[in-house]
Amino acid sequence: xxxxLDATTSVLIAQVRQADASHxxxxxxxxxxxxxxxxxxxxxxxxxxxxxxxSQLPHPETPVFTEPPGYNEQRWTLTTTSGDLxxxxxxxxxxxxxxxxSGYLNVxxxxxxxxxxxxxxxxxxxxxxxxxxxxAHQRPAQRWLQxxxxxxxxxxxxxxxxxxxxxxxxxxxxxxxxxxxxxxxxLEAKGEDxxxxxxxxLLDEDIHMxxxxxxxxxxxxxxxxxxxxxxxxxxxxxxxxxxxxxxxxAEVSDGSDVxxxxxxxxxxxxxxxxxxxxxxxPFVDLTTNSSSEEE
Length: 295
Known about the structure:
Blueprint: E1 9-15, E2 23-26, E3 31-34, E4 41-44, H1 48-56, E5 64-67, E6 76-82, E7 85-93, E8 104-111, H2 114-128, H3 138-148, H4 154-190, H5 196-215, H6 219-237, H7 269-274, H8 286-294
Antiparallel strand pairs: 1-8, 2-3, 2-4, 5-6, 6-7, 7-8
Helix pairs in contact: 1-2, 2-4, 4-5, 4-6, 5-6
């Protein structure tokens, strides 16, 4: 793989198989827009490869046309960036003057870290469901490469596609193996404080799901399975041993100790000061004594 892949750049040729008028170009700013864009615009035919590639970029900026489409809506060049990755796509006819969609190819120029280029190629190839390096018209494609891309041919184009694809699969497989080691480490550290068999089965199930997804070249499903494993490990690390005595739960009022302010209540001064009821405080009639002293 190291003798095939460049450290910073990959140039890949892909066969276009389907194209429709699903996008427009903002003719004022030369930006890619959706078909419902209402400003000054013109139809552009992206094709299945370009649409799939742009949809796989995690955080792409709005693509800019460095070569806008003219009379031929399927001949153009656009660029965009996503993180450390810069992507340029050129749509070119190579057979039958571009009268049919199968007579077009895309030149994909990827600049950035090998890991990000490999992941993009893995996702792109999986989403297309076909090998993008397989040209519909082999001989015309070979002649076009010789005329426009010096030193390129269909054979080394296929090698570079496959090298990036395998690099993406290898990275995911290494992530799965690293997660398996982490699971074993955490389980051993917990020892007999947990239900070892239950936790082992739970973790193994998601690891197996990740391996099955990798066998199907489904990178998003691999990441989802590994995320579930990671969540289980967090829960496992925070699980308290069985011999720990938990604090009693807080008592919740049933409402009987709440005074109903809608019912009028009369309290004597003695009730307030002593916090006692009227039945517990002797009542002294001071009115009688005051009358006797006046007499």
